[in-house]
Amino acid sequence: MSYNQGYNELGCCLILPTYLDMSNKTLWQSYTSMTPRFRLTLGLVGFTTGLIGLYVSDKLEQLWPAPEDDIQLPAVHVQSRPRGSE
Predict the structure, then answer these.
(1) In this structure, are strands 3-7 and 13-17 parallel, antiparallel, or unpaired?
(2) pLDDT tens digit string along 57-74?
(3) Phi, psi of 45 (to 5 degrees)
(4) 44-73 burial string, b = 16+ CB within 10 Å, else e?
């Protein structure tokens, strides 16, 4: 196995195996190099996390409702005018 040697921002020596050196890949290339099963799992985990977050936030808002604001908004009146009259 071959190794790459580098330095981090603190000047400490880093020795990494070459298969961990992914500095020349874009995010899309890294994503497409994953197996389709892992990509599907990653997508389902993200979807499930979002769904659970929506459900939990609704339940928390039922337990602790947001305080009502006592701000009086100005009244807005909309008038329609014929076209061309400005």
Answers:
(1) antiparallel
(2) 999 999 988 777 777 778
(3) -65, -45
(4) eeeeeeeeeeeeeeeeeeeeeeeeeeeeee
DSSP 16-84: EEGGG--TT--HHHHHHTS-HHHHHHHHHHHHHHHHHHHHHHHHHHHHSPPPPP-PPPPP-------TT
User: So where are the chain's domains?
Assistant: 3-63
Q: State the amino acid at position 37 in one-letter form.
A: R
Q: Is residue 82 very low, low, confident or very high in pLDDT (cuts 50, 70, 90)?
A: confident
Regarding pTM above 0.70, the answer is no
